[in-house]
Design a protein that fits this description.
CATH superfamily of the largest domain in chain A: MetI-like
Shape of chain B: elongated
CATH topology of the largest domain in chain A: MetI-like fold
Oligomer: heterodimer
Helix content of chain B: over 70%
Number of strands of chain A: 0
């Protein structure tokens, strides 16, 4: 068990190193001189030269990478070209916005979708099952940004129940903050419930066919006991992996939903930085988002043996 | 008995609905501009933000451009990008996946290490990063999304190759004196086709969704070309004045995706009847 945990943690390190090289390398392909971009159009050639030295661009590429990654490891992600602020606090602020919405949204989505998917599987091909499949397939097919716009049109503009755009942090009071996140969270719940329900259904069907379930039934256990005491844990394991996967990719910012509701989240930070050609922010955010993803997936992998002990054996 | 019938009619419905929607998308994409006969870029300022009328069947957008002909051209954009991207990802991914799975050893280890690093970028992040470097353009999206989806193809093809290469008929081909290349091309690759087809169908839907998301973010198909995602993004400021500009492109994306997802389910049921 300990061996499994340690091997898995160790295997994340090379991935993170390769990711950082990929992010660094990608941004090297940008046409134009970063120093000139940093100074803008009005810079004199001498200034650009000085900036190149200051930014370490006169050094070999490998040295540049090592300097950058060294700084990143001490929490120095550089400064934003457009605002002059440090990149790290920018990212952390934006992350708190994205994370609030994503954690609440995915939690509620799982709470609805996992039981729905499992019950559908238990009564495979019943009317209820077909209903769950139909709803989840439809939800799966609606892009979250359009769903968000529709909710905004209905509840924000037409009925006027909820504010249309903006964000208030929870530090400024629970109710005002809640009112602002209702629509983005609802959007997220509806768009993530589909895949989670389908996964829960598929993995429950697979488990329900195994012999130990037939055995449990043969012992005379009630259907409810068979399902919750015997099938649940094994069927939930693959679903948990999917939830972790969803969580990992969404925590890095939900750019489209943040755009619909004008939320200052991580996804929006990245997209705005791409528009503004603010490369220190682009580079920092990409690395940060990818690192979150790797770490969340690592945590899920470590939780997996608790549900399905065969993995660690 | 009733339950089984319900299950089977669902599968049939999936296939029929999926094939219908996909065919409609392709027909619209190929023949659309001739069917509509209205320039999607033509400005008609007096009609701007108007609803459906005899002049503009589905209304006009913020520049008075005809919404119907822009939707039809959006179908063309989506279908072309999805087709080119899936093809790019499949070809590059299959070559690398076969190389990794068949050569094994160091080639496999190094390819998989790089591949896993690509897979460590969630969702659209890699595509966003590539778009940041090459700038928004139609071919740029194909490259960005193609590279972003390629690693998944590599994984699927590699694991298919790894399981097939141990089968007896592959062994038999070697024993008969066929070269590795012939064995590969004639016996291993054709048996990887089923998982590749299933993946390609699913990927077609992902790409249409991703392209519309990128275009919605302003990093996809550049204006004035019509794309469903960018139509949503440019109509957003007029959401209360002209809601039809928001409703229609989204409906197009949703119905298309629903059709492709159901086709995907049908294809999977057909090629992999276990589930």
């Amino acid at each position: 068990m300990t061996r499994f945990i340690l091997t898995r943690i160790a295997s994340a390190i090379p991935t993170l190193i390769l990711v950082s090289i990929a992010v660094f390398g990608l941004l090297r392909f940008i046409p134009g001189d970063p120093a000139a971009l940093m100074l803008g159009d009005l810079a004199k050639p001498g200034q650009v030269e000085a900036m190149r030295v200051q930014m370490g661009l006169d050094k070999p590429v490998v040295a540049q990478y090592l300097i950058w990654i060294g700084n990143v490891l001490t929490g120095d992600f550089g400064t934003s070209i457009s605002t002059g602020q440090d990149v790290l606090p920018l990212m952390l602020n934006a992350f708190s916005v994205s994370a609030t919405i994503v954690l609440v949204g995915v939690f509620i989505a799982a709470l609805i979708a996992v039981p729905a998917g499992m019950l559908a599987a238990w009564r495979q091909n019943s009317l209820g099952d077909v209903g769950v499949i139909a709803v989840s397939t439809i939800l799966l097919s609606i892009p979250s940004f359009w769903l968000g716009l529709m909710l905004l049109l209905a509840f924000g503009l037409h009925l006027g129940w909820l504010p249309v755009i903006g964000y208030v942090p929870f530090s400024q009071g629970f109710w005002p903050a809640l009112v602002y996140i209702v629509l983005p969270v609802t959007t997220l719940v509806l768009s993530e419930a589909g895949p989670i329900a389908r996964m829960a259904r598929a993995s429950t069907i697979e488990v329900a066919r195994l012999e130990y379930i037939t055995h449990a039934r043969a012992k005379g256990l009630s259907e409810a006991a068979v399902m919750w005491r015997h099938a649940f844990k094994n069927a939930f394991a693959p679903t948990l992996t999917l939830i972790g996967f969803v969580l990992g990719s969404l925590l890095g910012g939900i750019a489209v939903i943040e755009t619909v509701f004008t939320l200052p989240g991580l996804g929006r930070l990245l997209v705005d930085a791409i528009y503004a050609r603010d490369y220190p922010v682009v580079q920092g955010t990409m690395l940060f988002v990818a690192a979150i993803y790797v770490v969340v997936n690592l945590v899920v992998d470590l939780l997996y043996p608790f549900l399905d002990p065969r993995v660690a054996a | 008995m009733i339950a089984l019938a319900l299950g089977q009619s669902r599968l049939k419905f999936n296939a029929v609905f999926g094939i219908t929607v996909t065919t409609l998308l392709l027909v619209t994409a190929i023949a659309g501009p001739w069917l509509v006969g209205y320039d999607p870029l033509k400005l008609d300022l007096p009609s701007r933000l108007t609803g459906p009328s005899a002049r503009h069947l589905l209304g006009a957008d913020e520049f008075g451009r005809d919404v119907l002909s822009r939707l039809v051209n959006g179908a063309r954009t989506s279908a072309w990008i999805a087709f080119a991207t899936v093809l790019f990802a499949l070809v590059t991914g299959t070559v690398l996946g076969v190389a990794a799975g068949f050569l094994r050893g160091w080639t496999d280890r190094i390819l998989m290490m790089i591949n896993d690093a690509f897979l460590a970028f969630p969702g659209l992040l890699l595509a966003l990063g590539i778009m940041a470097v090459i700038g928004a353009s139609r071919d740029g999206i194909v490259l960005a999304l193609g590279l972003a989806y390629m690693p998944i193809v590599v994984r699927v093809v590699r694991s298919a190759v790894l399981s097939i290469r141990e089968r007896e008929y592959v062994e038999a081909s070697r024993v008969m004196g066929n070269s590795e290349f012939i064995t590969m091309a004639r016996h291993v690759l054709p048996n990887c086709v089923a998982p590749i087809i299933v993946l390609a169908t699913t990927m077609f839907g992902w790409v249409i969704l991703s392209e519309s998301a990128l275009s919605f973010l302003g990093l996809g198909v550049p204006p004035p070309a019509a794309s469903w995602g960018s139509m949503l993004s440019t109509a957003r400021p007029y959401i209360s004045q002209a809601p039809h500009l928001i409703v229609l492109p989204g409906l197009c994306i949703s119905i298309t995706l629903l059709g492709i997802n159901m086709l995907g389910d049908a294809v999977r049921d057909w090629l992999d009847p276990k589930l």
